[in-house]
Write a structure and sequence with these properties.
Number of strands: 10
Distance between the termini: 33 Å
Largest sheet: 8 strands, mixed
Strand content: 15-25%
Strand order of the largest sheet: 2-3-6-5-7-8-9-10
Structural class: alpha/beta
Radius of gyration: 19 Å
Shape: globular
Oligomer: single chain
Length: 298
């Protein structure tokens, strides 16, 4: 093992121990009915499509309701599956989180705001079942990379927006979240002319994207920013060929203008996958990410 890998492993263990100590306070030894991974739990049906979620529960049941970490898969809005996050959510459950991965409808069959609606339904589902799952509905963190990062950010900024449909599912429950973490996310202001050729527009808006001004505004996270938004953790490689780093830079500037709580880490030489293109930078970002989770899980 290299020296840098050894240092990262030690720091990860220290942060993990810290996080576990925060989350497991008051743990009891009696068996609990929910532990381990549960797949394809039904959420409800939207436009004829059954929605589902995978949830990983800790092995021990603390007295205090647990925080939730919702991981959203990427795939450019056209591919991917919630089960790709199973290994990660199981690992996170061992830190004391109830960790989940929710499905969403994909393009090209389903356009904006279908994917956003689906993740918001998943958040409301978790809150509606807070007692059953022994979770704290006020401590839900959403996280994702690429398309998943965009959806995490959109869920974060639209917690108090009435511009999205609840499809009659858990209508009395809001979809606000406690914190958001996103990497390499396409979070630009799509109303700007410079994004006319963005693949995001074709995949999520479809048709004559230049003429869909209202949709372009609705797709843009900056449209919904207000003082009630949660804290953000954002990271991006400065050499990303798929999602321009300017998108995150612009979004961070808007967050700063409004005095939002935001941590932003830009990785020199990093492309869309930080782990592959800039491993040392990726390790640094991962340490900061763990610290962010520990802070907002309290």
């Amino acid at each position: 093992m290299s020296k840098s890998m050894a240092v990262l492993s030690i720091q990860y263990m220290v942060l993990s121990a810290f996080l576990l100590s925060l989350l497991s306070c008051g743990a009891i030894d009696k068996p609990q009915s929910l532990k381990g991974l549960y797949e394809d739990l039904p959420i409800g049906e939207v436009d004829g499509v059954p929605l589902s979620i995978n949830i990983a529960f800790p092995d021990k049941n603390p007295v205090k309701p647990r925080p939730v970490l919702v991981m959203i898969h990427g795939g450019g809005f056209v591919s991917g599956d919630k089960s790709s996050k199973n290994t990660q959510i199981v690992k996170l459950s061992k830190l004391g989180f109830v960790a989940a991965s929710a499905m969403y409808r994909l393009s090209p069959e389903y356009k904006f705001p279908a994917a956003v609606d689906d993740i918001k339904v998943a958040i409301r589902y978790l809150k509606a079942n807070a007692e059953k799952y022994h979770i704290d509905p006020e401590r839900i963190i959403v996280t994702g990379a690429s398309a998943g990062g965009y959806l995490a950010v959109m869920v974060g900024v639209t917690g108090n927006s009435d511009a999205f449909s609840d499809y009659g599912l858990y209508s009395g429950v809001d979809s606000s979240v406690h914190a958001v973490a996103a990497q390499s996310a396409p979070v630009g202001d799509f109303s700007l002319e410079k994004y006319n050729d963005s693949p995001m527009l074709t995949r999520l808006a479809g048709g004559d994207t230049a003429g869909l001004s209202a949709v372009r505004v609705a797709m843009s996270p900056v449209t919904y920013l207000d003082s009630s938004d949660p804290p953000f953790f954002l990271s991006h490689g400065d050499s990303d060929p798929l999602v321009p780093v300017d998108m995150t830079r612009e979004f961070v500037r808007e967050l700063d203008k409004q005095g939002h709580d935001v941590e932003y880490y830009e990785v020199k030489g990093g492309d869309h996958s930080l782990n592959k293109s800039a491993p040392e930078g990726a390790k640094f970002v991962f340490r900061k990410y763990l610290a962010f989770l520990a802070k907002w899980a309290q």
